[in-house]
Amino acid sequence: MAAARDRVTDRCPGALVLHEAADGGLARIRLPGGLIAGGTLVALAELAESFGPRGAVELTSRGNLQLRGVPAGRHSELADRVAELGLLPSATHERVRNIVAAPFAGLVGTAGGAGDSALDGLVRALDLGLCADPDLAGLSGRFLFGLDDASGAVAALEADAWAVPLDAGRWWVGPAGVAVDGPDVVGELLAAARGFLRAAVDAAVSAAPAGHPIWRVRDLPDGGAGLAAELRAGRPEVARPEPPPGRRPVGVWRRPDGGHAAAALVPLGRLSRAGAEMLAAAGQGMDPAAVSLRVTPWRSVVVPRLADPASFVPAARRAGLDAEPQSLWALVTACAGRPGCASALADVRADAADAVAAGRLTPAFAARPLPPGARAHWSGCARRCGRPAGSYVDIVAGPDGYLVHAAGAEPKESSRW
Ligand code: SF4
């Protein structure tokens, strides 16, 4: 049952099928729940470093990792190394293991029945169930599973099949919109994915060949309403919980159990070997290789159990990370730009870095006051890849300089820069 992927070729890269970017091969490595051991992160950074000056590890907006600049003759070596590191448990399912989980679950006092170990366990059970079902290899690389905590931290990512904790061990599960007991969450999410595949096949059969590809639930002709009703199967519909947007702490804070956790921003998501080594060493435990880390969808890495709270912020700064709670890096994103993308009209990452170094989110010509908490996304062309969910200031390179405007609005300013 592969129609969801095949109807229009799904070009999402993986560790086995790379995207050919202007700066070399681009591999994407799925990290269900953003979970990775410190030693594994360091090993990937070492591998990227061995690719030469274009090699890099990047954090993605779904809490996965990308390796850039993979030389043409080293694709199979990359796949072998990723498998050795335990990050390729299924060759058939590697691109569909898209599971985002609340990265601060259990760490900021909002456990709500989904503390860190509980959510990690659900992530692993969902990943196992996903990889064990041959049909689910037919999902597109864009279909997203979401496991939230009571803070609603990942609600903005608009997963296709997702669960949010309620009270007393119950969970709300979408898109069905039903309440289930904790042990039923994984089965309910997998059933949603199977139901989506059936609905996608039906829609593909009845639609014109040039119709919109059906990669996600919202791509179904009715937006997924029929799928939700089918999945409810007569059970009462329960209103979706709408928690206020969850905190995304940066820096060091005290966990509800009295220990310390920390998070460091990775500027524009590009992680150096020094940064990976610092994060692995910051975790609590005798062996940095075994330290558990969480990659967030917001280009940061969480150290759930911190060894030395006082040293984290300065050590992060020395390693090219930023753990200052007010850092502008929490508010700025950018696409690949030059030289990584052949379509780019500017080196947006360098330009964004220059702006942040000058204390701004936008080009100098557009330095009007921004509302508190405003975010900015820099793009090398009008495709605006990687733009964040929610509102943000849109900075788009054109042939004559950058255009700066609010997302969804007409450009208000234009200038060479
Ligand atoms: S927005 Fe344009 S320049 Fe940036 S990555 Fe996408 S296609 Fe390339």
Automatic annotation (TrEMBL):
Q: Which GO terms describe its molecular function?
A: 4 iron, 4 sulfur cluster binding; metal ion binding; oxidoreductase activity
Tell me which UniProt keywords the record has, alphabetically: 4Fe-4S, Heme, Iron, Iron-sulfur, Metal-binding, Oxidoreductase
**UniProt-listed InterPro entries:** NIR_SIR_4Fe-4S, NiRdtase/SiRdtase_haem-b_fer, Nit/Sulf_reduc_fer-like_dom_sf, NO2/SO3_Rdtase_4Fe4S_sf
Q: Where is the Nitrite/Sulfite reductase ferredoxin-like domain?
A: 23-84
The source's domain of life comes to Bacteria
Looking up SUPFAM superfamilies in the UniProt record yields: Nitrite and sulphite reductase 4Fe-4S domain-like (SSF56014), Nitrite/Sulfite reductase N-terminal domain-like (SSF55124)
The record's listing under PANTHER family reads:
BLR3264 PROTEIN, FERREDOXIN--NITRITE REDUCTASE, CHLOROPLASTIC
Q: What is this protein called?
A: Nitrite/sulfite reductase hemoprotein beta-component ferrodoxin domain protein
Q: Which organism is it from?
A: Pseudofrankia inefficax (strain DSM 45817 / CECT 9037 / DDB 130130 / EuI1c)
